[in-house]
Amino acid sequence: MQGVLFKGPTQVGHSHPDVVQAAVKQMELLNTNSRFLHDNLVQYANQLTATLHPKLSVCYFVNSGSEANDLALRLARQYTGHHDIITLDHAYHGHITSLIDISPYKFRELPSGSQKEFVHVAPSPDIYRGKYREDHPDPASAYANEVNLLIQEAQKKGRKMAAFIAESMQSCGGQIIPPPGYFQKVAQYVHNVGGVFIADEVQVGFGRVGKYFWAFQLQGEDFVPDIVTMGKPIGNGHPMSCVVTTKEIAEAFGASGLEYFNTFGGNPVSCAIGLAVLNIIEKEDLRGNATKVGNYLMDLLKEQQAKHQLIGDIRGVGLFIGIDLVKDRKKRTPAMAEAQYIIYRLKEQNVLLSADGPHRNVLKFKPPMCFTMENAKFVVEKIDGILSDLEKGTGVGVPNEESKPVDNGVPLTLSGSKRKPLQASISELNNSSINELHVTEALQSEENPDGNSSHYNGIACGQQQSSYCNEHGAVSCKRIRT
Question: Which DSSP category does 219 fall into?
């Protein structure tokens, strides 16, 4: 049975033999805690920093993206002597207390008044749904100016900025790709008041964008963040992550007298796995594959956009793509219930996909970088069939004047979610041919990990994938969300 998984940290594919061999070989030799220096740590740090600007030269190894972002906040606050953080609306940066505080994606769900005084939320640079859209002459400057206004208002209250933090491309926020030049302008405003710029590459780094190794590089060669955080892809699912920063920031952190130590971060086995992942990305040209397959997938999806009125926008780069579903293309009304219906119909056909964004209406593609053209074609055919069924059931069709691709210059992405699924009522749809009970049961099963429908077996990269897909051709995912 062929199946496709669009979520997970397996950057180079499940059970890649080079990753497995590297782990086993090092475990057979030695594994120590990080108080004891090992050649693997030095070699990995050198190879990792070689992908970054020379000023990003100091590595702190930790065990998860949440640990990495928490440490980044500590570095920023110690270096600047300030405490306040600017974050983007709908951002998600991790599951621990310090990161829930700066993740509107999470703290907006808490009781009113949960936003901390030291947290300042800037508009997401979304040129499809946001305040400044694709028809704006300079959306990058307009959105950056919103950050500057936040800084000015905070200064009037005597507050001082430690850092601006942003995912280089917002995933949970709805597959948002900032307009080029936005980060440069924001960094200038933040640096002017003594703050630093933190680029969160936990979900989008390590070659996913294809052309570049890091997603922040899409902004241009003249942009270099002060701190870069990494997570999921770094160890292909192994609990490993890293913070990379400048020598100046690291020295200020060390001067605090509070020694930083992480028992398992940077241990020999983790570093051996990290080295294997870097080598596989290079050896198998997975960045080239991300570009080739990502472009092909975008083309297939644009064909669907011409065919199905529910597809309002397709945006993406490399293997980071999103489909913004709408009830009305002109009004851009989010199609929330339809998105949930599509997700559960796909699940029945062995495709694990999820929806996210402020309205939970953006289908997210973020597959392993070994994703193939055959996989892309397989998934799009499934989506086409489900959209056709929806149109028959609701009487929705594409008017003749709209029966051509809508290309508004915005890239799109599909990926995973970290939030509870929206309990959208399928009654929003004309249920003449849609089984409302079936969809309701699907939504309930998502909340019931013991239900049969919450289990999935499918091939992570497709039946025709190379040998490093699981030799049994299957991956088990007990729950869709993490």
Answer: G
